[in-house]
Design a protein that fits this description.
By secondary structure, this protein is of the alpha+beta class. Helix content is 11%, strand content 26%. Strands 8, 10, 11, 13, 16 and 18 form a six-stranded antiparallel β-sheet that branches. It has a five-stranded mixed β-sheet with strand order 2-1-3-5-4, with helices on one face. Strand 4 and strand 5 form a beta hairpin. The longest helix is centred in the first third of the chain and has 17 residues. The protein is globular. The structure holds 2-acetamido-2-deoxy-beta-D-glucopyranose (6 copies). One 2-acetamido-2-deoxy-beta-D-glucopyranose (NAG) binds next to loops.
Length: 391
């Protein structure tokens, strides 16, 4: 018989025999209160050495978790700044700068007493802060779910000994799935190259072709449900904020609503001959160097309305000459270079993220310039343009 399981914290052993059907639909986490935050209150402190900007962002991360998990307009959980030692505020999270090997880390579930969340400039975007905070609330990484082998393949041969434990599967006794299916789109899902020893090869790839893993934008609807069910709030996913994506292409099936500029000298073409950025095994587009010395390939977005945007492009360049990737915004008056990326000799995927504001309607143009020696082929994947500043 199947055990019914919790995706969170404590070692909880259920036997299906002792649970009625009703009980199996709603796991009684509250019977095991140790890793849940009492009264659904999470007291917090923020280390004074963080700049005002970072402190504001840490608060914004907590606010977004709280507002996104509102259940029928009532708070599910609340974050409250700790005033001082008293019987209610014994347990609290403490955002601190990373020190030594305690870097970008947060324990899963309420630990008791002061509970440190270590962050630094490699992990303090708002979505990353939400990820660490959700750990403290009790959410595990998605890729270690007990059933993960049906959804992802772990490439152990590319994971150094010291990082292997980051991929250790949870047991059905230590985690509950809350009836929520495996979620590739979870904020709690790492990307395909995380912890890679050889960064040209993935550590994770997906069983369902086309799925993109490792988003760092916002909680998914299932992430919201996990918090709401875990804290017994009921489910309400009517206000899960997602930025409006005017371009969002992983090139898995086609080049979406982008086009190759016919006035360029050659075209970006879809390929899957090497590992892609989306999931370690799918498609990307490639500007072939061989035969295209001093030529240009250009991909163009549809016309986008005026406004502020975040432009994200994943790229990878091999070879050693002067080829470059240019990201340009063009309106009726002028072209503005958003980014020029050149001189990369590591074929590993990298991501470039830039804020851009346009007063006029504009198009995004992404050009590959091939150098004279035809050695720098350029690959591109996961082009995203969403409204608002980069998160
Ligand atoms: C971090 O460093 C301390 C002291 O050097 C060591 O005891 C501990 O095991 C390390 N932790 C990890 C996760 O590597
Ligand atoms: C990781 O890379 C280093 C150096 O490239 C190599 O010596 C080591 O064997 C690799 N380990 C794994 C687990 O791939
Ligand atoms: C491009 O396609 C995406 C998704 O496929 C869609 O959401 C977006 O509105 C489209 N953008 C434009 C400008 O048509
Ligand atoms: C590139 O693609 C465009 C649009 O699909 C097409 O019009 C053009 O002929 C192609 N150019 C080359 C050199 O294949
Ligand atoms: C994007 O690329 C530019 C030019 O190489 C670089 O200065 C910038 O730091 C990159 N941004 C990110 C977020 O990678
Ligand atoms: C750099 O490119 C030249 C051709 O322009 C090639 O002969 C050489 O082997 C390349 N070097 C490396 C390290 O790739």
């Amino acid at each position: 018989m199947k055990l019914f399981l919790l995706l969170f914290g404590a070692a909880i052993i259920y036997s299906s025999e002792v649970l009625s059907k009703q009980e199996r639909n709603v796991v009684n986490v509250a019977a095991y209160p140790t890793k849940l935050w009492k009264w659904k209150l999470i007291f917090f402190l923020i280390h004074g050495s963080f700049s005002d900007d970072i402190q504001t962002r840490i608060r914004a991360a907590m606010n977004e978790i709280a507002s996104t998990t509102l259940t029928h307009n009532r708070p599910c959980i609340r974050f409250i700044e700790r005033n001082g030692p008293n019987e209610f505020e014994q347990n609290y999270i403490y955002f601190q700068p990373s020190v030594g090997n305690k870097s970008c880390s947060s324990d899963v579930g309420m630990q008791g007493g002061q509970q440190d969340i270590f962050v630094d400039d490699t992990c303090w975007t708002k979505p990353q802060l939400m990820y660490h905070t959700l750990h403290a609330l009790g959410l595990w990484d998605e890729h270690i779910r007990p059933d993960r082998d049906n959804f992802v393949t772990v490439h152990w041969d590319n994971i150094a000994e010291v990082n292997r434990n980051k991929f250790t599967k949870l047991t059905y006794e230590s985690a509950s799935l809350l009836g929520i299916p495996y979620d590739y789109t979870s904020l709690m899902h790492i990307g395909p190259y995380k912890y890679a020893n050889d960064t040209n090869r993935p550590t994770l790839s997906v069983a369902t072709p086309g799925m993109v893993i490792g988003q760092s934008i916002a909680m998914s609807a299932n992430d919201v449900k996990k918090v709401q069910l875990h804290y017994h709030c009921g489910v309400d996913i009517s206000h899960v904020p997602q930025p409006e994506r005017l371009v969002d292409c992983s090139f898995e099936r086609n080049i979406c609503n982008m086009t190759n500029d016919p006035s360029a000298s050659f075209n970006w073409t879809r390929s899957n001959t090497r590992r892609d950025h989306s999931n370690g095994q799918g498609y990307y587009v490639f500007a072939e160097a061989t035969g295209n010395a001093n030529e240009i390939a250009r991909m163009v977005s549809p016309t986008l309305p005026p406004g502020g945007y975040c432009v994200i492009v994943a790229y990878s360049m091999s070879g050693n000459d002067t080829g470059r990737l240019e990201i340009v915004a063009s309106d009726i008056d002028k072209s503005t270079v958003i980014q020029v990326i050149s001189g990369r000799q590591v074929p590993a995927w990298e991501e470039n993220k830039t804020n851009f504001i346009s007063r006029l309607s504009w198009v995004l143009e992404i050009s590959a310039y091939i150098g004279p020696s035809q050695t720098t082929g350029i690959a591109m994947d996961d082009v995203v343009v969403y409204r608002g500043p980069c998160l």
